[in-house]
Design goal:
The complex is a heterodimer.
Chain A lengths: L5 H10 L31 H11 L26 H15 L1 H9 L11 H6 L6 H16 L1 H6 L10 H10 L8 H5 L6 H14 L5 H13 L7 H19 L14 E4 L3 H4 L3 H15 L3 E2 L16 H18 L3 E4 L3 H15 L25 E3 H10 L15 E4 L2 H5 L5 H10 L30 H7 L1 H14 L3 E4 L2 H14 L4 E4 H8 L23
Parallel strand pairs in A: 1-2, 1-3, 3-4, 5-6, 6-7
Helix pairs in contact in A: 2-11, 3-4, 3-10, 6-10, 8-10, 12-14, 14-23, 15-16, 17-19, 19-23, 21-22
Chain B lengths: L3 H19 L3 H30 L30 H14 L1 H4 L2 E6 L3 E6 L2 H19 L1 H4 L5 H10 L11 H19 L1 H6 L2 H23 L4 H12 L12 H16 L7 H4 L31 H14 L8
Antiparallel strand pairs in B: 1-2
Helix pairs in contact in B: 1-2, 1-10, 1-12, 2-12, 5-8, 8-10, 10-12
Classes of the chains: A mainly alpha, B mainly alpha.
Chain lengths: ~550, ~325
């Protein structure tokens, strides 16, 4: 999908008529129809993909994903099941009984509007229904109509809306213009979390077979091959071996990682994008160097070769199913604990869902760093440690030989990924690591980092090309904050601890701030690590010349 | 329409109260029967709503972390915004409930040419919301004078503090003035800010009009129409001691409008967004400890039948590739 140039889109964002620029729509929001046209929706899942899920992923859960079929969001007929309305209403009832959060969030909103301008989708599109409060009202209005006394008696006057095809279209549009980043929930006086609402909305849409391919295909791949890229075991291994070849060329050090090795002390799991796609591969090279540097007894797994979890973007059943591989593989290999790579939503699942869904992991031990002896009591039950926690501990104990000058060609800033920041509280660890591996570091403005961080704009399975303009709009708040430090401090490297970020921020920077690159924190670690027996390094892990080595 | 219909609804309530106060038996109905009924519906409805929420489990531990978590011992944790203990949660909830911590974070985003986004501090909503709620609380507590005999010391102290400016006679209560001002702010904000006006429903205006009318009738009684406090206390104290009686003709009709509106509010509350006063205590993103990697959280409906695609199935599909690639397999 061709997308307009950044300067033109910039004018459109700042001056085009939208609620963000002060233009108030003439019609009340319930009367504004959701109209799908090329560029404003992600493609639906292909029929064979949904056949795979109903036959292979969830053969014993009929109805979880509706009827597999080809359908077109732009058409007037979505080929919904005849009783789709009933399915949705029963689905709401079931979820009200299962999730207290849903009941509270449906009942307690006072529409104070504090959330309105906290959403990156609203800031970038100015579309009223991208204000978190209205996104929730899309569902809340139906809840009121069918599940509250006031709504049942007074209907429209009480703010109720009947479940219609028009409402369903709105759901499909706006529950896929939310990245479940939870920024609004930081500012809400009742902690109403739009991520919960969007998750419920998407679960409900799945029941009637409304979904997007960019989530369902990676979910199918993850189920079958272990990773969302669909890399088969030998390819997964080969990719990592290629990275080791590059490492050898750059450092002279030969690294021989192991795969599916029983009896290793640690199982390492990271998003598969790290072994496959730029710039994630440089982050993976950082991991490989680090583990070699400290002589960690660890193994990769080709079966549990995905840290990310597209189930989080689908429904809790899929989340549980895909996540289950981590513990299953740890048990099969007989490792002591699990170390997790840099990934945002993976860590939301690991931190807030994994133990509940697939625990208890009583076959593992409380993670203890074999190098420093530090016991990670904060992971005593889940038995999984974040790479930034692990690395920070190593640095604190002086176990790494680092030469931050090797990153002197980088002027870095740090993007807090939504989930580590707002669903985990992992904020200082990566910063401590950065302090020790780069000499030039500048924070973005405080309203755009830590718990107030802005999403990359393309999380939750929205990093697909057909909605590029939307992504560039919703990523604008993040890009704008980067631009601020680029202009002020000549920042040229945006570091992060998230695989989706590494992919999406790269597109975002190419579009809004073309001279800023994106990297994982572990890449900068890898660059700075002084390996025993290495040759003098002339380039960084991207084969880019180091400062003082140009020409 | 979203503003007009709740406005008319409140006017209608006032009219009903006014008329009922004049017809035979109406005063007893509004002054005695209705308060009992409303209070019972309030308590019942309130309890019902809280139990309705409590009936659903909290399947996952989903606090919104707003600061550094409990991690390595040398990393400074934000023990309140990212609590890892019950005490931390209590502190977090205290700040949330009593000081509106989250609202205090509020910012206002503005878009300039460039495009350039700027986030300014925006504390007015926090300030006026806080004033509104605290004045409401003080006013309700001051009313305890009418239900208790002797008047408890804290009520007298509140009255003294509230009136310490000593303006006019009877002494002007600061809370009365601030309360009206705060409601007016909350209303004007809703009407004047375009995005807030766009999201506002009738259910947002109705309580504002209703509470404003209650405050106004109360103030009118105190400063303008000078209601007979002795007769009123006889009635209200009677209500509290279950020996209610009305001395006919002594109490101003404004009083009955006031009581009628209060009863309307009590009945309306459990079915409305005003239940946020209870809901905030039960919000899982705020009232949970961020310790999900330390302590296993139990989901009562966790489905043990959902298992990952098995390793055996995986190896069966890819065994040859794995062997060729030198990856260990379970079955040769």
């Amino acid at each position: 999908m061709a997308i307009m140039k950044a300067d033109k889109l910039g004018v459109s964002v700042a001056k085009g008529p939208s609620l963000m620029t002060g233009a108030v729509p003439k019609k009340d929001w319930p009367d504004v129809e959701a109209i799908f046209k090329p560029g404003n929706y992600a493609y639906p899942a292909k029929k064979e993909m949904m056949e795979y899920h109903s036959q292979k992923t969830f053969p014993n859960h009929p109805g979880l994903f509706g009827e597999p079929r080809d359908w077109d969001p732009e058409a007037d007929d979505w080929k919904l099941p005849e009783n789709w309305k009933e399915i949705i209403l029963n689905g709401i009832k079931e979820r009200l009984d299962k999730f207290r959060s849903l009941k509270i969030f449906m009942d307690c909103c006072v529409r104070c509007g504090a959330c309105a301008d906290k959403c990156h989708f609203f800031l970038g599109t100015g579309d009223p229904k991208n204000m978190p409060v209205l996104r929730a009202e899309l569902l809340r209005s139906v809840y009121r109509n069918d599940f509250t006394l006031g709504g049942k008696i007074l209907g429209k006057i009480a703010g109720g809306r009947e479940m219609t095809f028009g409402v369903l279209k709105e759901w499909f549009m706006y529950f896929y213009q939310c990245t479940e980043c939870r920024r609004c929930s930081v500012f809400c006086p009742y902690g109403i979390d739009t991520a919960e609402i969007t998750m419920m909305g998407r679960e409900l849409l799945h029941l009637v077979g409304v979904n997007i391919n960019w989530i369902m295909e990676p979910a199918a791949n993850s189920n079958r091959t272990g990773n969302h890229m669909g890399l088969q075991p030998h390819t997964f291994k080969d990719n990592i071996i290629y990275l080791c070849d590059d490492i050898e060329e750059i450092t002279g050090i030969k690294i021989e990682p192991t795969f599916n090795r029983k009896g290793a002390e640690v199982l390492f799991i990271t998003p598969s994008a790290d072994v496959f796609a730029e710039p994630g591969i440089y982050t993976a090279m950082g991991y490989l160097l680090l583990f070699h540097h400290i002589g960690l007894d660890y193994t990769w797994s080709t079966y549990a070769s995905e840290g990310g979890n597209f189930g989080l973007f689908t429904n809790n059943e899929m989340m549980k199913k895909l996540n289950g591989k981590m513990y299953a593989e740890a048990k099969r290999l007989g490792v002591k604990w699990i170390l997790g790579g840099e990934c945002g939503h993976m860590w939301r699942v690991v931190h807030q869902y994994m133990d509940t869904m697939n625990g208890p992991a009583d076959f593992l031990e409380v993670p203890t760093s074999p190098i420093t002896g530090t016991r990670f009591d904060n992971a005593a039950s889940t038995k999984m440690v974040h790479i930034s926690e692990f690395t920070a501990d190593l640095i604190k104990h002086g176990k790494l030989k680092l030469d931050p000058k090797r990153n002197d060609h980088r002027i870095a800033t740090y993007h807090d990924s939504c989930n580590p920041a707002r669903a985990m509280g992992l904020i200082e660890e990566p910063r401590y690591v950065l302090q020790n591996v780069v000499n030039n570091f500048h924070e973005m403005p405080e309203n755009t980092i830590r718990e107030s961080t802005f999403c990359c704009g393309s999380g939750t399975g929205l990093n697909t090309d057909e909605i590029m303009e939307l992504r560039m709009r919703s990523g604008l708040p993040r890009a704008n904050a980067v631009k601020h430090v680029r202009d002020k401090h000549a920042v040229n490297m945006l570091s992060c601890v998230c695989a989706i970020d590494r992919a999406t921020l790269t597109s975002l920077m190419n579009y809004w701030n073309p001279d800023v690159e994106v990297c994982g924190v572990s890449e900068l670690v890898g660059n700075a690590l002084v390996m025993e027996g290495e040759k003098e390094r002339e380039t960084g892990l991207r084969f880019e010349p180091l400062a003082g080595m140009e020409g | 329409m979203r503003i007009l219909s709740p406005f008319i609804a409140v006017l209608a309530l006032i009219a009903v109260g006014l008329v009922a106060a004049q017809v035979p038996g109406g005063q007893a109905l509004i002054g005695i029967v209705l308060p009992y009924l409303a209070f019972a519906l309030f308590l019942g409805g309130f309890a019902y709503r809280v139990l309705y929420w409590a009936k659903s489990p909290v399947p996952f531990r989903i606090p919104t972390t707003c600061g550094q978590a409990n991690s390595l011992p040398w990393i400074k944790q934000n023990k309140i915004d990212c609590p890892s203990s019950k005490l931390g949660v209590i502190a977090r909830m205290f700040l949330e409930v009593f000081l509106f911590r989250s609202l205090f974070r509020n910012t206002k985003a503005e878009m300039y040419e460039g495009p350039k986004l700027v986030y300014g501090s925006s504390k007015f909503l926090w300030l006026f919301a806080l004033m509104f709620h605290y004045c409401f609380l003080v006013i309700v507590l001051r009313h305890m004078r009418l239900f208790m005999d002797p008047v408890p010391g804290f009520v007298a102290a509140l009255e003294f503090g509230d009136g310490f400016l000593q303006i006019g006679a009877p002494v002007l209560y600061m809370t009365d003035a601030i309360f009206l001002g705060a409601i007016a702010f909350l209303f004007l904000r809703r009407v004047m800010l375009s995005n807030i006006r766009y999201i506002s429903l009738s259910a947002d205006y109705f309580p504002l009009f209703l509470i404003f009318s209650i405050a106004l009738t109360g103030i009118l009684m105190r400063y303008v129409f000078r209601a007979d406090v002795v007769a009123i206390k006889q009635l209200t104290h009677g209500l509290a001691t279950f020996t209610p009686a009305i001395v006919a003709g002594q109490i101003s009709p404004v009083f009955f409008i006031h009581v009628f509106l209060v009863c309307a509010l009590l009945i309306y509350l459990p079915f409305s967004k005003l239940m946020h006063m209870a809901g905030v205590f039960m919000s899982p993103t705020r009232n949970m400890i961020n310790n999900s990697r330390m302590v296993r959280h139990i989901n009562p409906w966790n489905d043990p039948n959902i298992k990952p695609h098995s390793y055996a199935g995986y190896e069966d599909e890819f065994r040859e590739f794995m062997k060729e690639g030198g990856i260990p397999v379970e079955k040769e």
